[in-house]
Amino acid sequence: MKAQIIIAGLLICFSISSAYAQEGDSVQYIQKLEIDKRKKKTFAVKQRDSTMLLTIDTLIMKDRATLEFFGKKKVQLTVKHAEIPEEAYIVGTDSKNNGSDMDIDIRFERLGKLYILAGGRDANNGSRTHPNGNGGNVKVRYDQSGIIPQQENKHKTGYLKIDTRAGGYRVNPQTDLYNIYTQIGMGIRSGAGRLGGVPQGQIYSGSPGRDGKSEIVGY
């Protein structure tokens, strides 16, 4: 009887610790996050819960820095103070070719150029089982007391671009987004869970996925 009680107690403790681990993976607060030039910070799913709520007080992204959410179907990101002086990327994928649904609340203190990439990824013949992915749905709410982003001219500061296009369109790639996806390693999964660039001569198959939607509003 004593042994059974001990085992039951251990199982309860294990269940509680697992629940806390899952919550810790899904809900995070970071006081300051700085991503250096051409570096990537990835938040990858560790538990079954593929939804993430992340709050960052201060986010600093240097030139070509990437903030990636991998294995996340839904992302809720709050950034109270963002400094993006040059070009940077926020990327979301569910790891099955689909873009993440992202709800972003942000205040831009500095903004050169920001790409939010929630596009579906391409399937390819012979090396993967997932079809061409769906684009995610992205909503960006920006604090108008900071810099107000513009979408008209990528050569001017304050540029914000959101990609929610489905996978399967990139046989004839759109040059700018194609190059960005490739350079940050979001082209084709190279195996063992790693992401790699799109090899030359890659052949894509199947019908395109479903395009996502995007919305940008100030408050």
Notes on the protein architecture:
There is one protein chain. The protein has 219 residues and is an alpha/beta fold. It has one domain. The chain contains 2 helices and 11 strands; from the N terminus they run H-E-E-E-E-E-E-E-E-H-E-E-E. Strands 1, 2, 3, 4, 5, 6, 7, 8 and 11 form a 9-stranded parallel β-sheet that branches. Strands 9-10 form a two-stranded antiparallel sheet. Strand 9 and strand 10 form a beta hairpin. The longest helix has 25 residues, at 2-26. It is globular and about 45 Å long.
List keywords for this structure.
globular, 11 strands, alpha/beta, nine-stranded parallel sheet, 219 residues, 2 helices, two-stranded antiparallel sheet, single chain
Order of helices and strands: HEEEEEEEEHEEE
Count of folded domains: 1
Count of helical stretches: 2
Runs in which pLDDT lies below 50 for 5 or more consecutive residues are 10-24, 188-203
Work out the strand percent.
Answer: 35-45%
Biggest sheet character? 9 strands, parallel
Mean pLDDT: 81
Q: If you compute it from the alpha carbons, what radius of gyration comes out, rounded to the nearest whole angstrom?
A: 19 Å
* Secondary structure category: alpha/beta
Shape: globular
Task: Compute the number of strand runs.
Answer: 11
Helicity range: 10-25%
Distance between the termini: 62 Å
